[in-house]
Structure prediction request, 123 residues.
Amino acid sequence: MCVIVEGGGQSKKGKSMKRVGFLLKVKEELIEEYKKHHEAVWPEMIAALSKHGWHNYSLFMKEDGTLFGYFETTNDFQSALDGMAGEEINQKWQDFMAPYFESPSSTHADKMMLELTEVFHMD
Prediction:
């Protein structure tokens, strides 16, 4: 399951930024291995995320594998996802990471994201 929370704000350069939050669930028996892979995310993946407007991107995890992700984008969320969908490196990363998530038939994490509306934000 993945839930998206979106809100808006301004970047330091004055561009409108959209805040995006999401939840996923990593299989408990694979948590340590999942963390290890994120200590060395492929440079090509980092470059593709930046290219498609994923900024200030962070992942946080509870002990049970519940994962909270957050990023900011100058695009809307769907545009950020669509940009990544066109990147070959993203397909490889999603294929590589799919077995780590609790999902029906190893669905890619980026296909399980559901958008929510932000109800409160304070700078």
